[in-house]
Every structure is written in structure tokens, then in C-alpha cells.
Amino acid sequence: MSSPVAQKVSLLGLDHEALVQWCAQLGEKRFRATQLYRWIHQRGVADFDAMSDLAKSLRAKLHEQAQVQALPVLAEQVSRDGTIKWLFDVGQGNAVEAVFIPERDRATLCVSSQAGCAIGCRFCSTGHQGFSRNLSSAEIIAQLWYAEHTLRRRFARDERIITNVVMMGMGEPLQNYGQLVPALRTMLDDNAYGLSRRRVTVSTSGIAPMMDRLSQSVPVALAVSLHAPSDALRDQLVPLNRKYPLAELMAACRRYLQYAPRDFITFEYCMLDGVNDSDAHARALVELLSGAPGGARQDTGWCKLNLIPFNPFPDSGLKCSKPQRVQAFAQVLLEAGIVTTVRKTRGDDIDAACGQLAGEVQDRTHALVRMQRQRQPAALQAAVQAAPETGPAMAPGPAYRLETNA
């Protein structure tokens, strides 16, 4: 009876130190691991025979025990604005999306960390698809590896193309912490992609204990999905808030700031028509972020607000705030001394904009049932009406408008 064939090691999933240790088990020195690491990540080479400065004996071992495995590409779509979206097959009926966003002064890749997402945010298409599994570190890095080296060949360039990576694709990165950290280390390593900590961003819905862990291991830039100024409303929009409410989340953000590569934390705020976009909500948001009644201006410099126009998707039951409402909301924040930007929508014609990534997910969490419950108007309407007031001059927000599909 023959013994089972050993599974080959996926080298894309090993950070530099892990690769050094693995090569040591083969009897190879550290510099050989570094050479191999550079061939894979800096040059995008998957064929061990093409790694000309590696000893033949090492190449033979690599053929026998390892692989550089790209993710199969199921589809590629190119937006009229130059945004590119890839759909990658990760097996067992699951597929994840990554998005390349070119701009004049940067080129950003939005990377997925899970097949689906278990958080279930009301305004996110991925959450409506449910959750299947975490991606491996190899599958996370494979998105960057494919995008970087495909684009270099396509544009006939030798120098680096992708300047920024945001973990804002499918999934909650901090729920996949063990696989996220090696991937981040490879992104930052000068022998691989050489990105600075300022140019790699992890987005989280607010898992406070894991934010603390990230600050001690790989403190890259942090973006927090906030979306509401009160617990009552955030409970409805971001169900994780029931476990880690705003007071706990704000405390974790301020702790993270001590280790962050920038002197501020970014807060993401999806603008939902009649739900979280009134002047009352804006003033409550100032008070929340300042940590003082009335919003002490001197304590608002630690954060940056990124207002995101909601990108509709089927069955969300939500609408995007009107442009003039977004600007009025932003003005309240700016007058309080909070740096505020309105995100430009990119790739919405190919469903590649923020909140629209869906891929294909074999859901194990009964997301459709949960989302149908969350779409009941009563709970969200009550949360909207319970928005905290910050002063007697506060005007009531507009009535909440919920769309339903009969």
C-alpha cells in the first residue's frame, strides 16, 4: 500500500522569517531563503527553474516540496474610470474579489481576507452573501502577487505599480488574524513588496481586542467602520456593536493611536439617506469623537472622517444620501475641526465600489434569514428616532425611507 503524497508547501503564504525557517529544514542558509523570497515577490516568478541564482540542488528540493500557486481568475472587469476588478476562485464554490484603483498620485489594491463575511452590516453586499471560510495567508497574498505582476506585464513596466494596499475587500480582516499577520508582513518586507506601514491599511468593523493585538504585532494604518454616532443606531447597522459598543471601540482606537504609523485613525462613515445623515447625527458624531459634551474642538485632531456615498445593491432596502446632504454633513464636521473627506466613487459600473464586492460564497451562516429580519423597518426606525441630541438648537433629521421588494 503506497503512502499518501505529501501536500506541497504554498510559498506565497510564508513571510520572510517563516521562509527562512522552512529553508533551514531543507539544509539551506538564510541568504538562500532571501533569494527565493525576492524571486517570488519582487520578480513574480513561479517557475523554480527560472530562478537562475539558486543552486540546482535547492531547485530540485523546491520542485519536490513547494509551489508558488496563483489563484485561478474566473473573471476580470474594467471600469470606464480605469478601475479593474478580478474574481478569484478559492475552491469549493467560493470566489473572492480584489479591486485595483489607479489614481494620479497612487495605485491602490483592495484585497479580500475572507470568503464572505459574518459581520452582516446592513449596507454591505458581502455581508448579505453570508460567510464560508477564512482565506489563507497564501490566498491573501496571491491577490497582490497576481495584480502587481500582471499589471507590470500589461503596462510594460519594471518598477512597482501598486503603491497602497487596503484590506477592505470581502471579509472582516481581524476575524482572520492568524492568516492576516503573515500577509501584512510580506507586504511590508523590503525583500517583497516594500510597502510602508502608512500605505497598508486594515479596515475593521471594530473588534476591539484584536485591534490591541494588531497594534503590538504589525501596527499598520487603521480604518474603522463607524457609520453611526450612537449605540442604538450602530447596533442596527453594524451588529458587532452589540458585542463591542462605541465606548469600548473608541477606547481601543485611542490605544491603537499610540502605535499607528500616522497621528490619526480613519473612520469610515457610509452615508445612508434618512438613516444616519442628518445634522443631528453629525453633531452627535463630533461629540463622540471629541469625547466631550458639545464636541471639544481641541480633541478632534486624532481622527479623520471619510464619508462614503452608499453604493446600492439589490435587496439592501437603503438609499444613498443626496450630494447636498453629504456636503452639509461634512460641513458640520469641518467646522468642529475634524478633517473630513468625501470618498469619490470608483468602479461602480462594474460593482467594484465600496460595499459592492460580493464574489461567490457558499454561506454557512444563514445570512439571508438574518438579513430579512434586519430589514424590518421598526427596529431601524426606532434607532434613527433615538439619535442623541447635542443641544436645544438641534433640528430633527429627515424621516427614514426604507425600500422593500414585494
Keywords:
S-adenosyl-L-methionine, ten-stranded mixed β-sheet, disordered C terminus, elongated, methyltransferase, metal-binding, DNA polymerase, domain 1, single chain, TIM Barrel, two-stranded parallel ribbon, tRNA binding, tRNA processing, 406 residues, alpha/beta, 13 helices
Provide a short characterization of the protein structure.
The protein is an alpha/beta fold and 406 residues long. It is built from 13 helices and 14 strands.
Descriptive notes:
Helix 1 (16-25) packs across helix 2, helix 8 packs antiparallel against helix 13 (377-385) and helix 10 (279-290) runs parallel beside helix 11. With 406 residues, the protein is an alpha/beta fold. Residues 352-358 and 389-406 have low confidence and may be disordered. The chain has a 10-stranded mixed beta sheet with strand order 3-4-5-6-9-10-11-12-13-14. Strands 1-2 form a two-stranded parallel sheet. It has a two-stranded antiparallel ribbon with strand order 7-8. It has helices spanning 16-25, 30-41, 56-65, 125-129, 137-155, 177-188, 208-217, 231-237, 246-257, 279-290, 323-335, 367-374, 377-385; strands at 9-10, 66-67, 73-78, 84-91, 94-102, 107-110, 114-116, 131-134, 164-167, 200-204, 221-225, 265-271, 303-309, 339-342. It has 2 domains: 9-67, DNA polymerase, domain 1 (Orthogonal Bundle), CATH 1.10.150; 73-385, Aldolase class I (TIM Barrel, Alpha-Beta Barrel), CATH 3.20.20.70. It starts with 8 loop residues before the first strand and ends in a 21-residue tail after the last helix. It is built from 13 helices and 14 strands. S-adenosyl-L-methionine binds at residues 171-172, 203, 225-227, 311. The active site is at 97 (proton acceptor), 354 (s-methylcysteine intermediate). Keywords: 4Fe-4S, Cytoplasm, Disulfide bond, Iron, Iron-sulfur, Metal-binding, Methyltransferase, rRNA processing, S-adenosyl-L-methionine, Transferase, tRNA processing.
